[in-house]
Task: inverse folding
């Protein structure tokens, strides 16, 4: 039975502003999959104005421009207006260092834009927004400048903790830079939690890092899980060609998905290619490694050999490439939050082999719903097992798919986010 808030939602269309640090154009990484799902849900029910940044295509990515434009076209069709500002990385890095040296945070300076601010404030004067959703901490300062009855901040995960963990792995002087950013950003995160009506994190593990009882009162855990094209609206069931979702490809393709200029992804895939892949090839010389994701760094591009390892660069949609994979790997040595790319593969019935830090955020049963390994030999053995044993691969794939459907009901999660945005301030759900 629908509650009074849900009945009220059906009667009223809201004017919503959604600010996203990196627009899901294309939705080819975990955070972008989450953002794409939130946007699609809200735009189908309310009037949405969306603004944020896009990463311009590199000169060595001939298909990236078309992929970005196709995604932008879909986004413009869903929203009332879209402001997509190219993020010039060289200038953004310079701004970040200047901001850090000036006593601020690199995160805020990296995503600072007078053009974005002017557009959003112009919309605000003309439209009069009912609520604002800021996606990631970098959009929080601008969201607080917009007059609105409700403001919600989706941290996804706590970026300050990522900086702190990166500092532990880095050498001087970067460990000082990372540690300074972690300390300053953690202070700003606490300030933003008090400035927004509600703040959102993607897993209970992230929420446990917030110990202040006053801050926890406005804290909510929303696990969107597999998103954007993998789960159908209204049923929370994966959309699969052929229905069952457990028909794995016969080709021994091992896949990795993610933004390939992101440090933890670069580190993880290079570690996999150098330390684990040779062990797999010893047992399965016919195996192929498919690395999917835009803006591959030089180190990642150098992994492509034209034979056993393929580096795709930007792709319009990730789902066709996931369908090529017999097994998905996430060999990350630094990971926080919820790895949506892994959940998306699990929802498609693909067995996944992951490191412990990835598995911790997902919460699936190791050995049955996904395979977990830390050392190169054990990781290679797990991948080789599902490449060679069709029954075992299918069983892990089916169990993983059932887990995602049972645990990560995307429609329920997105409905909770909607209620936080449009309901009266008394709506609860704090972690």
Result:
């Amino acid at each position: 039975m629908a509650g009074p808030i849900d009945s009220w939602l059906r009667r009223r269309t809201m004017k919503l502003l959604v600010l996203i640090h990196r627009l899901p154009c294309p939705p080819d990484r975990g955070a972008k999959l989450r953002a794409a799902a939130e946007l699609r849900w809200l735009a189908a029910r309310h009037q949405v104005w969306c603004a944020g940044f896009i990463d311009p295509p590199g000169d060595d990515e001939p298909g990236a421009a078309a992929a970005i434009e196709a995604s932008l076209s879909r986004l413009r069709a869903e929203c009332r207006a879209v402001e997509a500002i190219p993020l010039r990385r060289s200038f953004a890095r310079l701004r970040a260092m200047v901001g850090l040296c000036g006593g601020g945070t690199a995160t805020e300076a990296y995503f600072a834009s007078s053009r974005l601010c002017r557009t959003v404030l112009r919309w605000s004067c003309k439209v009069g927004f009912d609520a604002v959703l800021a996606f990631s901490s970098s959009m929080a300062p601008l969201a607080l400048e917009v007059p609105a009855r409700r403001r919600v901040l989706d941290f996804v995960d706590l970026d300050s903790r990522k900086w702190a963990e990166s500092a532990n792995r880095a050498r001087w002087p970067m460990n000082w830079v990372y540690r300074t950013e972690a300390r300053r950003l953690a202070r700003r995160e606490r300030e933003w939690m008090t400035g927004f009506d509600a703040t959102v994190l993607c897993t209970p593990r992230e929420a446990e890092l917030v110990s202040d009882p006053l801050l926890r009162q406005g804290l909510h855990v929303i696990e969107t899980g597999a998103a954007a094209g993998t789960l159908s609206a209204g049923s929370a069931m994966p959309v699969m060609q052929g229905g069952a979702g457990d028909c794995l490809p016969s080709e021994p393709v091992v896949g990795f998905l993610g933004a390939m200029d992101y440090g933890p992804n670069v580190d993880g895939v290079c570690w996999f290619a150098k330390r684990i892949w040779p062990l797999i090839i010893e047992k399965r010389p016919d195996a192929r490694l498919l690395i999917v994701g835009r803006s591959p760094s030089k180190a990642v591009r150098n992994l492509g050999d034209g034979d056993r390892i393929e580096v795709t660069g930007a792709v319009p949609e990730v789902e066709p490439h996931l369908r090529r994979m017999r097994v998905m790997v996430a060999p990350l040595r630094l990971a926080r939050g919820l790895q949506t790319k892994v959940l998306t593969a699990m929802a498609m019935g693909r067995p996944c082999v992951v490191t412990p830090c990835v598995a911790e955020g997902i919460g699936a049963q190791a050995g049955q719903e996904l395979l977990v390994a830390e050392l190169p030999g054990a990781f290679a053995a797990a991948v080789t097992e599902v490449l060679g044993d069709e029954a075992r691969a299918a069983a892990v794939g089916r169990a993983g798919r059932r887990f995602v459907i049972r645990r990560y009901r995307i429609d329920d999660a997105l409905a909770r986010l909607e209620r936080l945005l449009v309901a009266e301030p008394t709506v609860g759900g704090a972690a």
